[in-house]
Amino acid sequence: MDRRDFLKSSLIGAGLLPLLTWEEAKAFSLDAELMPEDLELPPKDAQVFNLTCQYCMVQCGYKAYVWEPGKGRKVKGAYTTVLSGEWVHPYFINRVIKDGKEVFVAIVPDKDCVINQGDHSVRGGGNAKTLYTQRSPHVASKRLHYPMVRLKGKDSPLIRVSWDEAAEFIAERFTKIKQEHGPDALGMIFGDWLWTLPTYAILKFWFKGLGSSSYAGNGWFFDEESAGISAAFGSGTRSFTVEDFETTKLLVTAGTNLQANGSVWWHRFYLKNLSVGKAKHIDIDPCRTLQAQMAEKHGGLHLQIKPGTDPILAGALIRLVIEKDAYDKDFVRKYVSGFEKVVETVKDPKFSLDNASRATGIPKEKILKAVELMIENKGQSMFLHEKGLIHQMAAFEAQHAYAVLGIILGNVGKPGACTSRAGGHPKGTFAWPEEPPSREHNLNIYEGLERGKVKALWAYGCNIFKQLPSLTKYRPLMEKTFLVVSDRIHTEMDSAADVLLPAATWGETDLILASEDRRVRIIQGFMDPPGEAKPDWEHVVLVAKKMGIRGFDWKSPKDVWDEIRSQNDWIKEMDWDSLLKAGTNGLRYPMVNGKSPDRLYSDEMERIMGKRFFTKDNKIHVEKITVLKDFDPKKYEWGEVSSRYPLMAIDFRLNELWNTGYTYWDTPGVYERTPDAYLLINPVDAKARGISTGQWVVLESPYGKCKAVARVSDKVPPGVVAMPALFPKPEQEFNYATRPTPTTDGSVDTMVACEVYPL
Amino acid sequence: MKLNRRGLIYLGTLGVASAVAKNAFASQAKEVKVADLASISPLKPVSFNYPDEESPAILLDMGKTVYMGVGPKKSIVAYSSLCQHMGCPVNFDSKSRLLVCPCHISIYDPARGGMCVEGPAISRLPRIILKVKGNSIYAVGVSQGIIYGRSSNLGR
What we know:
The complex is a heterodimer of chains A (759) and B (156). Chain A is an alpha/beta fold and 759 residues long. Chain A is 28% helix and 17% strand.
């Protein structure tokens, strides 16, 4: 069968996987078939740099090896064995410019890093393919090279200018807007995981320099998505250590697919624990993901929950634990405040087993089996949750309820046991300058946009035309503002940007990020940035200086870091040289007198820090569980389900897609898996609408629409459809259909009533 | 001959494919007999090594015409059996007709050129180029990628 016949057959159903459309089949990548030349491997005298991955919260360690072309090693035959972490995949190697000369670079997962031990995810494995090189016309052409401005308004062309001219242009406009409309007319939306140093620079500039309180992060309006967990522990900081995945007896995941986002954590759990029968897994997710299938295959459970009913399930599980008198009494007596509120709250009939089963769609026997497993493994279980809870309207209720469940079972601060968020992106914020007092009444920047109060926006490491909620409503409003964009690539924001500032990024400058198990590492620069691109924090310095604002005299990344760490006791001991020396294992926070606990809320933490929890009274607080009394799914997204919008849409992370997909099309063997966004729809719903797999469909909500390729599948239950978040193709972005209302923890809501029909 | 866009893509593809093949066959690729056609049954994998004993491979008759298949039904394909993620040998799951790595669950589709459809692998399984001569089937080269553990597909 040649390529053409293959493509045709895909259209008519030869594949066992969901069928390909013609569009999808075309993306079956020719590039992936190209034969790489025989590889040069890093020579012994290659220059070595320490890195962490540019993507998720796991923050795997990598090494960059740099050498002169022709000086590498050539090896005949096999040179390494299974699981060694030593193989250099052809995609790990690239040619880039360093100090003006072309060099080879190999980006190799570090087998000495305690986090990944030589392993990598499908995202991190492509790190080297994303590096700027003229040898890849695709990568080279998408990068921003020079500052560009529209001198005469939105209809004028973007023209190349110097950094000085760009900074002057922004400074003039910001000054004028501030004078005419006040500081809060200047708005800023930032990628809050953005390499720590730039994040601090923009926050300081916004709050202290401009005096504006109009801002939001990617994915949230206000707060930091941890309200339900920090209400209990006094902090949303993740409390476990990566080794726990190999020792836990039970993993309970709610609204987090670690296999697809946090892969190396899941790999360690799967290979060393679940698959060898040492642990079980309960996965709570409306979608029957690969993770859910593996949980069931190895003796655990998939609780296929009706979206948005998590507070009911968690309340029912708490009630069953209490009814069976199986909570950890010692732990609760010693460390928990407000347990009586929990007992009282879950007495409500809506948390009965019968009602919970009805409301959540989970069979009673599965709920009972879950409780049994949780009780059997109390004090030895990891309870993790993430965006699946945080991005539903009742985010606080869901997050807090699961936290309380984990806590009363004593899963706190012990080896293999925790109650925590899992995380999505690395930690990039270590110091938060004081916000202007106006913030108290200016929490929602989108309201400011709607009322015409926000006149300018700085999109800072954040694609505001993809990552924000309800874009059908908000994008046109954002397009009208004076729009400054700091980014590494050209995006759809180009069409409305008044200024484009090119960012030097991963590999091109020294950066700092922390893993969500609290290891801080320097990511060393090892190559030249394209054109005149500069690190994002320097964008801020240039504009601040033009505006005559003092306090932005940093000359190097180290200067910025020193200012950050002086404001945070957890990291103040971590000077630049110590971090450099600590390499890919980094230093852990919180650090006191050179010591850091492996786990938060542990005996070790109490010894080192003199306290066990971050709350004022050093107790865990569960009193806020009373919010569950008023919880009713119909108050929120389900209240919008109607004959016009009879389905509930949710989104999910694609394993192979990071964030807004700014590097998605760089790795041919990866993007060919999912060349278009797809929509999972149950066979019952598909049949009723005449939809078959491979067909283009429109998802329409009361707030807007987007399109996707249908995949008819029982991975979603009847009444529910699901599509990937942030797919990097026009019109395939779910956020054009999402709701404009902040969730109860100030985050965005990605659950929405909808209808689906053929395009 | 009139060509629409689709046709152009098709011809372009052949150009690339033949260039790839030439490269793969270049000079040193060796011919190794894998099996007699009569001994191959649908969905029953045949193990062999290619290009040398250090690199195991798997031959599959998918029972119907598949991408780059050879044999009477153009249904026979072969791939390196070492996962492109960390080198664990993949297993053929005859129920799903997919190749599954037991270590971290990378999943490949032998009917779609060995494309990785799930899991941490970042590329397809390298395809072993097959040739039918008489009643036997031979491995004659490697296409699309480098076999796990090596820096070159050339044999020792």
